Amino acid sequence: MGRSKDIATSAKGDADYVNVSGDTMTGDLTISSTAGQLKLTDTDGTEQNTTIKQSGGNLFIQARDNTNNSGIVFAGNGGGNYSEHMRINGSGIVTMPKQPVFMVIMTSAPTLTGTSTTTLPWNSEILDIGSNFNTSNYRFTAPANGLYYMHLHLEFHSDSSWTSSTWSYIGDYYVNGTQKTGADFWGHSSKYNLASNAAILELNANDYVDVRARPNNNTLRYSGDSAGAFGNSRWFGYLIG
Asked: Which residues on adjacent β-strands are paired with residue 59?
């Protein structure tokens, strides 16, 4: 085949050559360099469009646009574990099968009275991609730095002592033990009440979130699976970026 610039070296140290155009390569191609990366550039050599890099036990495949900004990044664990982390199909639909997401319920719905603040016992998982929720201490632990969407859907029963002049905290988000949101609620006596609390939380890796309530001398009877009301009170969340 035609000779050109020496671009690769065999394991024996012999120089191998390929033609700049028209040749077909078969078999494995091993590239060894200090940077440990394969770059594909435009024909003028000025723009780096694609980089394949092995570094720190991780594989990175990065596509760039003409302004040299990152376009698409895929990452897989080293050690031969190259499971799919993200896919963009021909219709432009993006799926991320390992994106952290959870939804939990209480199988033994609590009844809260007095003025104490209580952590709600989310002890049963409907789903937990990434295994980041602990049903023993009722905490979600962030696996990575990012913004997380959180949503509480709560159903509870107000007994006859509920008055319109008093309120309760029905479910607040606490991050590492510090309150981040408030959800004041005035209920209706002897009625079932529906309420929600949604928030976007900025979390660092290993920050934990739990949900706490304070009835403020009212009585909060949460609905859960124990009363046959499967998942009527539930908490779900996921990483959004």
From this structure: 54, 76
DSSP of 51-74, one letter per residue? EEEEETTEEEEEEE-TTS-EEEEE
189/37 Cα distance (integer angstroms): 67
Q: Report the SS3 class of residue 99.
A: coil
If you write DSSP's letter for every residue of 196-212 in order, what string do you get?
Answer: EEEEEEEE-TT-EEEEE
Taking alpha carbons only, the member of 228, 234, 102, 211 closest to residue 155 is: 234
Which residues partner with 211 through β-bridges? 173
Q: Is the Cα torsion angle 31, 68, 202, 104 positive or negative in sign?
A: negative
Rounded to two decimals, the pTM is: 0.69
Determine the Cα–Cα distance for residues 163 and 122; give it in Å rounded to an integer.
28
Structure tokens that stand for 236 in this block:
């779900």
Token pair 């304070």 is at which residue?
A: 214
Give the residue among 125, 123, 119 at the shortest CA–CA distance from 103.
Answer: 125
For residue 213, what is the DSSP state?
Answer: E
For the stretch 50-93, pLDDT in tens is 666 665 555 666 655 555 444 455 555 544 444 567 766 656 77
